[in-house]
Amino acid sequence: MKVLVATEKPFAAAAVEGIKKEVESAGHELVLLEKYTEKAQLLHAVKDADAMIIRSDKVDAEVLDAAEKLQIVVRAGAGYDNIDLKAATSHHVVAENTPGQNSNAVAELVFGMLVMAVRNFYNGKSGTELKGKRLGILAFGNVGRNVARVAKGFGMEVYAYDAFCPADVIEAAGVHACKSQDELFESCDIVSLHIPATPETLKSIGYQLVNKLPKGGVLINTARKEVINEDELLKLLADRTDLKYVTDIMPDADAAFKKLEGRYFSTPKKMGAQTAEANINAGIAAAKQINAYFADGCTKYQVNK
Ligand code: 3PG
Questions:
Q1: What pLDDT was estimated at residue 191?
Q2: Closest CA to 56 of 7, 12, 13, 11
Q3: Backbone angles phi, psi at 101, to 5 degrees
Q4: How far does the centroid of ligand 1 lie from the alpha carbon of residue 232, in Å?
Q5: What is the pLDDT, as a whole number, of residue 41?
Q6: Distance CA 192, CA 110 (A)
Q7: What is the pLDDT of residue 130?
Q8: What is the ipTM of this complex?
Q9: Confidence of residue 189 (pLDDT cuts 50, 70, 90)
Q10: Where do the D-isomer specific 2-hydroxyacid dehydrogenase catalytic domain residues begin and end (predicted)?
């Protein structure tokens, strides 16, 4: 079987080596398409692929049409909003993700960016510490739980809200469970977003909600840009000059946000999962899932059931 790794943002070399070993150990062939710049390159590469490993790479109906032999696509990572699941199902393609494999990397970046934000982006002015501050985690999944663990190391008070995770599970992790998003934003100095991009969460983080942050509040986004209502957030940040926004996913309105000097930062390219460890964990997990699918039809991590 031909296993295509199609990554516009490549894995670390050690991860590619690990994926290759894994795929070849099962008698399959690995084909690499890295740093591609045109969709046409992807359309060409998928033509004879039986399986595909991707990151944030878009797999839409056009890609699936071109992928005549494709049986399985694995998103090496958590969020699978880049795969058209309906189209995958109608093309009889199994779509999977690798939950939890890159979550520590994303959680660590949250604190890298937070320290920078509360120290005024290292501009020389006196900042604040994270110790003793209240951190709100919006969605208590794999990344949220890692964020809670690290936050406790910083001596932060940790709060969380998750529409799908029962309060007793959150409390069992030593985290205060909030009853709503509103309560989370009202109760915390900093809120960290870990919600997926779904029809329910699109543009759900807007003026009214973020305005509930107390004076000097910080919003940090290492989830998806689509969950932010950018127009509303820009308006709020203009009205509330005490608030800061830091993000690992550059907003469409980056140029407008950049005018909020000293209160905004975006990484140039999503960096949360960009560590050797996360690439190795997620990439090899993806390869193993593909091997298991071809060996005995295992679809444990299927997201288009
Ligand atoms: C994920 O959903 O796993 C993260 O957002 C990482 O995405 P990436 O592999 O595109 O960096």
A1: 99
A2: 7
A3: -70, -25
A4: 25
A5: 98
A6: 8
A7: 98
A8: 0.98
A9: very high
A10: 21-304
Domain of residue 12 covers 1-99+273-294
Q: Are residues 40 and 134 in the same domain?
A: no
On whether both 135 and 251 belong to a single domain, the answer is: yes
Residues 62 and 129 in one domain: no
**Inter-CA distances, 125 with 120, 128, 202, 292, Å:** 7, 10, 36, 54
Largest Cα span, the chain: 60
**How much is the pLDDT for 105?**
98
Predicted pLDDT at 245? 98
pTM: 0.96
Does residue 267 belong to any structural domain of this protein? no
What mean pLDDT is reported for the chain?
98
**Residue 223 within a domain:** yes
Residues 6 or more apart from 146 whose CB is under 8 A from it?
103, 104, 106, 107
Residue whose Cα lies nearest atom 9 of ligand 1: it is 55
CA separation for the pair 74, 60 (Å, rounded): 14
CATH code, domain with 42: 3.40.50.720
- Report residues whose beta carbon is within 6 angstroms of any ligand 1 atom: 9, 55-56, 77-79, 102, 270, 272-274
Q: How far is the CA of 170 from the centre of ligand 1 (A)?
A: 24
Nearest-atom index, ligand 1, CA of 97:
3
In which band, very low, low, confident or very high, does the pLDDT at 134 lie, cut at 50, 70 and 90? very high
CA 241 to centroid of ligand 1, rounded, Å = 31
CA of 105 to the centre of ligand 1 (A): 10
In a domain, 111, yes or no: no
Q: Give 136-180 pLDDT, tens digit per residue.
A: 999 999 999 999 999 999 999 999 999 999 999 999 999 999 999
